[in-house]
Design brief:
The chain is mainly α. It contains 32 helices and 4 strands. The strands form 2 sheets. It has a two-stranded antiparallel ribbon. A two-stranded antiparallel ribbon has the order 3-4.
Amino acid sequence: MLEATPTAQSPVTEVDTAELAARFEEEKPGRVLSGPVAFVLTAATLTIALLALWQVFRPLAQGSKYYLIFFLAGVLPLVFLAYPADLRLPGRLRTLFGRRAATPEPPAAAPAGGSGPSRTDWALAAAALLGCLYPVLPIALGGGGGGYDAFLDRQGLLVGMDVAMGTMLLLLLLEGCRRTTGWILPAVCVLFLGYGYYGGLLPQTWAVAHGGLDFGQLVDAFYNSDSGFYGTPLDVAATYIVLFTIYGAVLDLSGAGRFFVNLSAAAFRRSRTAPGRTAVASGFLLGTVSGSGAATTVSIGAVTWPILRRAGYPAERAGGMLAAAGVGAILSPPTLGAAAFIIAEYLGVSYLRVLGWAMVPTVLYYLGIVLSVEIDARRSGVRPAAMAGGSVWRLLARSGYHFASLFAIVGLLVVGLSATRAVVLATLLAIGLSFLDRQHRLTPSRLVAALSSGVRGVLAVTVVCAAAGIITATTTKTGLGPQTAALLINAASAVSSEPAVVLALTALLAAVALSLLGLAIPVTASFVIGWVIIGPALLDLGVSAPAAAMFVFYFAVLSEVSPPTALAAVAAAAVTGGRVVPTMWHTLRYALPAYLIPLAFVITPTGLGLLGIGGPQRILVATAVTALGVAVLAVAAGGWLPGVGPAGVPERLLGVAAGLTLLWLQPVPIAIGAVLAGVMAVGVFVRRGSAGPSGGTRAGSPA
């Protein structure tokens, strides 16, 4: 992580940026361990890292599920050692039980979970190890056990010991999720479990009713099938995500993060809007190191907020910019969020194909942020701010090698290597290049630290992915996906029978549902649930699989900037000291294109051009029209037309209508939207002329 420049007025300087980032991650911060326990954790994480690397080049002969069993057996026990139980009751429950309604938070600088594991934690870790390794146990145990092949042969015919071990693992996974992400995801899993068990008691006339499953059938689906604990989400965590987190840790320790921020500052230091541009560019580049919206927000904020403050940016506006730029890192190639790897597995395509689908939306997303930055700078009258930084060319000559491993990943994917081999080779390249910098060279001890940090960073997401198997297996066994799809389509059809309208309304309902879902659970779980529940509705209406998957992906990621939770915005407010709610609304304004672009590539066939599908002409038309729509919406949201002047309420309303119309990528809506955009521009010109030389917003006035 980057170090903040000491300033008396910056709240972020009171704590280490890594600690501050951990407070606002989707996953809770883990314990800070020392002594023998830290040695055990380091040894275990190093073993897991070596196993993951070995699996890339010498896969275990028994197959991927066999590997997943050992991977989960290594990860789940560590969760109970690395994450405290933290069983404090919520404030209202404390009040009900006669306790204080609020407990003072520990000092921000205090390390989370500073005490070591308790005896209970060690017992849970041992139980997790037994539950995970039971399927490969070579000895008979209570009528079960007998080895991996014997366990597979009992699929659908589990004995009592199988059910007992599966139940124990189920409970341990739920507790692991609670420790790492909070109560919501375990509650959702229990809800699906209850639906699978009691759904047969629902009136059979209900759309969501099913034939009913007994508990043994559910445990069999979770424990001994390819859609349960050891399904696609865990496979992705164990084969892709762990390798990319190791790569990110290697880049971080090799000094890439500081270089990216310095390069951004040097590139824009002569520009009037240099502070804002630097924050946006840093967010994009740092996503390759962090992969987390909240962490990237804190990292860029620690460095750029003092500059933004000197330039005159209000804390809330600057926080919104930082949060939007940070979350954009998850949406940006070449290292998208974890759900992107699940897309590749679900659709059976290469990761390179998924990167191609994300290219144009990423460009449009950052176009919207940059335009908003330019508009805010002019409307708010920000001041020039001195920015330290050397020559861009000098920085590139000295440290430009940090880009080499990123280019290597893309190049190796292009020539046909798998994503796993590409990232491993890129990691080796980054390790070798680190020796060009004496301060950041990855000596054996630092390399061990990078491998351990990478694996520790994947503990929480691994547990989430394994627990997601409860949801996917229940949905598969009960047929909940098609049933929910029918409900969504029927709700839209009740409004209109026109197919285009039904599709648009279904997409809007799906967007709202995904946004609400993402408020409570991590991005990966949100995507898995959204895909199995909402994805079928889009597919049934003729939406292509790539468009449906990317639609669900984008709205799952946007939970980090969606009020009222908006973790990235809360993290940004902690950095800037601004008010949380206004920061959320500014973040929402900056991130607006990310909410609208997915609707564009779902509701019309031409929109597939935004995913790079359909030939050069479709791609060019879709990109150009959507870029115009994003620009018009940025003007409407910011109330300023760059190069002209302020836009009044009538012009801004015209801009909203024009931008939304342009997103419907058909000839007639495009023509109407273009006319409305032209009328808006003419209105701004007329307004400036009638206002005279003194018109416009006074420099330094609030927006």
